[in-house]
Write a structure and sequence with these properties.
277 residues, mainly alpha, Glycerol uptake facilitator protein, 12 helices, globular
Amino acid sequence: MTHDRDPSETHDRDPSETHDRDPSETHDRDPSETRDRGPSAYIAEFIGTFVLVFFVTAAYSLYLAPAPGFTDFGVIGLVHVFVLFVLIQTLSLASGAHFNPAVTLALTAMRQIKPADAGIYIVTQLAGAVAGGLVTKLLLEDEGSRVNYGAVTVNPERFESIILPGMVAEFIGTFILVIVIVGVAVNPRAATDWAALSIGAALGLGVMVIAPLTGAGFNPARAFGPALVAGEFGGAGNFLLIYVIAPILGALAAAFGYFRLYITPGSKGEAGLGPVG
């Protein structure tokens, strides 16, 4: 989820270059200049998505109370914050720490990753998510079976109609997550020291509010892995619309919004609107 650059560049370049550079250069360059990813990046995406899905689904299996019991979504939200924070800090230099096909597609649209690499990223993310769900089932077979091993689902007690409200909730949650990612990690002018915590907090915040409604997928891989393991998609059409299409649209809308606000010439002067702070 961070902008992929050689860490040595931070120390070798003139500090003034960060502020004097036109941010539009990052997006106006030839896509062929985007650096190639290799096996280490693909493995990092597999490991990161595996760890993310395992901890998230394990938390759901342990703490999600069957209706009409009370579930403290604050605990589940904090699990999302901590695990994503740790993974970004650990793996961002290896792969950019996407762990989410919607994020990968948004960054592909912003020319931060080549389409061929993005395709491999998505395959490894889906594989990692399935592996994470399988380990949760292996370790928590009894506890997890009652909640489908953390598979996401729309709460019918909250919505009379499932598809449209579910899509809106997943769109909003993913939009917030991705706008934070591109704002604090991709923006060349952003201070990245707090990027990992900011991104983790954005995910945790969305989970605390939206998980009681839809399970808070915000990530097609996170939704797919445990659903496949549990054999519970809640209807293929509903799953595709709510947990695949809506997050992808939310991520692309965030990328487009970022581009319009910070990059498009004419927003504020020749270089677009600069970030607050």
